[in-house]
Amino acid sequence: MQDSRELLKELKINRNDDDQGWSPTLKWGLGIGLLAAVAVGAFLYLRESAVPVQTALAVKLGTNASGGNASVLDATGYVVARRMATVSSKITGRVREVLIQEGMRIEQDQVMATLDPIDAEAQLNLSRSQLAAARSLSGSVRAQLVQAEANAKRVSALFDKRLVARSLLDEAIAARDSLRAQLIDSEQNAKVAQDQLRIAENGLDNTIVRAPFAGVVIARAAQPGEIVSPLSAGGGFTRTGIGTIVDMDSLEIEVDVGEAYIGRVTAGMPVEAVLNAYPDWRIPAAVIATIPAADRGKATVKVRIGFKEKDDRVVPDMGVRVSFLEPEIETKKVLVDRGVMVAGGAVVQRDGKDVVFTLQDGRATQTEVKIARRIGDDVEVSAGLNGGETVIVDPPEGLTNGSLAAPQAKSP
């Protein structure tokens, strides 16, 4: 029994025994390191990363800048040029020199490029030689005809005096008539040669490419040494144009208006245009005409709108938002709140509701909105936004109210 007690004493752990090799300093160091590792892990786990998003501005709709007349209809469209041309040469040839650059202003008939004129010059020289030969032959025949006519006259006088036989008179008259026919033929050949020379001169002139009207160069398509042709060769190695020019005075706006609202649009109706590139610039305009044809697929009718002011900032293919305004009436000053216009991708469904995420202080705020109508790729919101907010376009599925969001620049 005593032996058992002794054995139990030997198995007892002595907690005050420092023979284990764990010094107090080492114990404190390990504890602090463990706490630091736990803190770093918790920070990395709980840290919230910003979601990259695309943003756009919510635009307030309503009256024009002067507040005199209200908008009765809003639409979106693009700036188009009624007079634009890709200029090519009339003939196929190798480009010798290109005299235009993008952004360059040119006048009507100004030289844009020249082609290699070797073949055209050779044809011109040949036509000149042919004309000279035809004229020389005509002169020779004319001289022979003068002699033949004199001879026929002399023989006729002798025949009247019974001094020569009838056969000699017939020969003289035949020689004269033959030379007359040759002269007519040679003069006709000379005229044909003259026409051929004129064609050859036109062929040489066709090696010079000129501007059909005054405008601005928006594209330079050919380089020296390339082959250009008015028709596509099909192989992809032949250019079909020298450059593209636009008459900036012919710029106007084309918008698609829904069939249900086209009755509100009339010719001469005042319009206020806002370019997407310059949202604070309101441009006065007016309806030119309504094109009498509807798009069956989109159920829209195209409307042409002309600018009342010309400005170098307006260029083709710019996106534009227009407001069709009520005619100006001195006795009627009505201000109409039309709501807020946002990009169509900004309105999404969350829990069966139409919502928009706005960006404030780097965080997304979910706001329920009420859709009034869709205008092209945009949406008019009648409730939920006041205008001027920065909205998130195409928000990711994981984006929630209060999430960190970082605006990203649009890729080109």
From TrEMBL:
GO CC aspect terms: efflux pump complex
Task: Kindly give the InterPro entries that the UniProt entry links to this protein.
Answer: Beta-barrel_RND_2 (IPR058792), BSH_CzcB-like (IPR058647), RND_pump_MFP (IPR006143), YknX-like_C (IPR058637)
The family database entries (Gene3D superfamilies) matched by this protein are listed as:
2.40.30.170, 2.40.420.20, 2.40.50.100, Helix hairpin bin
Q: Which residue ranges does the record assign to the CusB-like beta-barrel domain?
A: 253-325
Q: Which residues form a coiled coil?
A: 169-196
* One matching Pfam family: Beta-barrel_RND_2
- Keywords for this entry? Coiled coil, Membrane, Transmembrane, Transmembrane helix
Q: Where are the transmembrane segments?
A: 28-46
Where in this protein does the record put region Disordered?
A: 387-412
Where is the CzcB-like barrel-sandwich hybrid domain positioned along the sequence? 83-229
Indicate the segments forming the YknX-like C-terminal permuted SH3-like domain, all copies.
345-403
MF-aspect GO terms: efflux transmembrane transporter activity
Family assignment from sequence similarity? Belongs to the membrane fusion protein (MFP) (TC 8.A.1) family.
What the entry lists under PANTHER family is as follows:
HLYD FAMILY SECRETION PROTEIN (PTHR30469:SF38), MULTIDRUG RESISTANCE PROTEIN MDTA (PTHR30469)
Please state what the protein is called.
Efflux RND transporter periplasmic adaptor subunit
Q: Which organism is it from?
A: Ahniella affigens
